[in-house]
Amino acid sequence: MNAVITGASKGIGKAIAEKLALEGFNVAICARHAGTLATARADIQQKNPSATVLAEVVDMGEKSEVMAFAGKIMSAFPQVDVLVNNAGIFVPGAIHQEEEGLLEKLMAVNVYSAYHLTRALLPMMTARRKGHIFNMCSTASHKSYPNGGSYSITKHALLGFSKNLREELQAHNITVTSISPGPTLTPSWEGFEAPPGRMMPPEDIASVVWSAWSLAPQTVIEEILLRPMLGDF
Fold this sequence. Notes:
Structural class: alpha/beta
Strand order of the largest sheet: 3-2-1-4-5-6-7
Oligomer: single chain
């Protein structure tokens, strides 16, 4: 079995890659920074020394790099069983105060990357009539909040992409699940003053991915919404 996880050098993406490798998957991961990517690759390999771990430096905001990554995946794996579109950038701020071009930047990473990579890899799934696509959305996909800005816009868009994809792929027997975590203890929250116990561990999100994938083929979890016990900040 083979899985692709974007933005997997740390946080939720890395936790998912580690979980899937531990369960016997070969994994393809990507991230922007070579150093953290190399560390993640070693950590994932440690979970399952026999697994193939393809790790590529990719800027998911650049379509050409996304497509090159897809090409390497198709060369390395004869099939893709799981695709986790996790890559994303979190930048809080009010729409009227954001720097020029932020919306375009966040759309490229948070939405377009998932769109282009999914389109590139889908033929490998539709040919087999089998596969599971996870789109990592957010509680910001469901509820607007002050200082949500362009980030919240892109997460609403990603959820819309997931819903549309789900409808389109039913006939091809491809499962689509959107996962919307609230505050999770990842590097994205560095500098934010909150006790670690107030946030969810990324390993819980990985467990949810594994549980959703492990269900019977006729069962589909379309949307999963997770929040810390005490709610969002």
